[in-house]
Design goal:
CATH class: Mainly Alpha
Helix content: over 70%
Mean pLDDT: 89
Number of domains: 1
Low-confidence stretches: none
Largest sheet: none
Strand content: under 5%
Order of helices and strands: HHHHHHHHHHHH
Radius of gyration: 24 Å
Oligomer: single chain
CATH architecture: Orthogonal Bundle
């Protein structure tokens, strides 16, 4: 009787869980899974996105991608932006987290100041830094009598640096809080034991702090990398992919091809390649970083 009651309760709990999860699963399926399959289907056609006729052309769009120099340039920019973001944001976020965890005064004020930019839309951030580089900072040049080049969005050689500044200003505080939460969960006994063994601050950082932050590092590295690969709205508001094509990301190129260029099938092929790249990068990073967590 007890077993029957237990199994009955378990079935009831399973039904309740399914009822709670079902709305999210429906939204996830309609909003992500279905469009993903449709994108793959359209990538095998020469559809323009408007007409009812969808001519099947097989893998022609994918073959065309490998010959498309503009698409390769878009990938090259996206890769450089991703590498720069991943390194800079992780280093700065970790350094700021360590500084705030050291017991400095007005810690809550600093946390708030660092975190507020990530609450702003990326489109607004793009407009802010467009004005900063084109109006505010050049005016500061005039005021101080200096001659620094602040027009970073205006040249192909400097546009990547300008975008990295804008993106890091927005998101460093978000990842800093994740590292800060990880730091505050490190047992103080580990630091005390390291001090007894004669370890200085640098040794304690690399031999205690970094290994204990392995789970937070996994979250931050994967999150920053995948987010950077999908950069789009910041570019729309600040550079519009320019000057020339110097800041055209893969998603920006996909949008201009599919919507502006009326090549929906070709744009869908670009989307499929990006999704596959995101999955591949995420899987490799998670597996590699999880091994470090286990070793730590």
């Amino acid at each position: 009787m007890k077993r029957q009651k237990t199994s009955g309760m378990e079935k009831k709990l399973v039904r309740q869980y399914l009822i709670l999860v079902l709305p999210g699963m429906i939204i996830f399926t309609i909003g992500l899974i279905v469009p993903l399959f449709l994108s793959f289907r359209y990538s095998l056609t020469s559809w323009d996105g408007m007409s009812s006729e969808k001519i099947f052309i097989g893998l022609e769009n994918y073959v065309k991608l490998f010959k498309d120099s503009e698409f390769r340039d878009a990938w090259w920019f996206t890769i450089k932006f991703t590498i720069g973001n991943t390194i800079i944001q992780n280093v700065l976020a970790l350094l700021f987290a360590v500084a705030l965890d050291s017991g400095i005064r007005a810690q809550k004020l600093y946390r708030t100041a660092f975190f507020v930019p990530c609450l702003i839309s990326a489109v607004v951030v793009g407009f802010i830094w467009l004005k900063m580089f084109s109006n505010v900072l050049p005016a500061l040049n005039d005021f101080l009598g200096t001659n620094f080049n602040f027009l970073l969005f205006g040249k192909a050689e400097t546009v990547l640096g300008g975008l990295l500044i804008a993106n890091n200003w927005q998101w460093v505080g978000y990842w800093m809080l994740i590292y800060l939460a990880g730091l505050q969960s490190v047992p103080s006994e580990l630091y005390e034991a390291a001090k007894v063994d004669g370890a200085n601050a640098i040794h304690r950082f690399f031999n205690v702090t970094i290994p204990m932050l392995a789970p937070a590092i996994t979250i931050c590295v994967v999150g920053i990398t995948t987010g950077s690969l999908k950069v789009y709205d910041l570019l729309v508001a600040s550079t519009k992919g320019g000057p020339g094509r110097a800041s055209t990301s893969v998603i920006y190129k996909t949008y201009t091809t599919a919507i502006n260029g009326r090549q929906y099938g070709y744009g869908s092929a670009m989307t499929v390649t990006l999704v596959l790249a995101l999955l591949l990068v995420a899987v490799i990073q998670v597996k590699g970083l999880r091994k470090k967590e286990v070793q730590a």
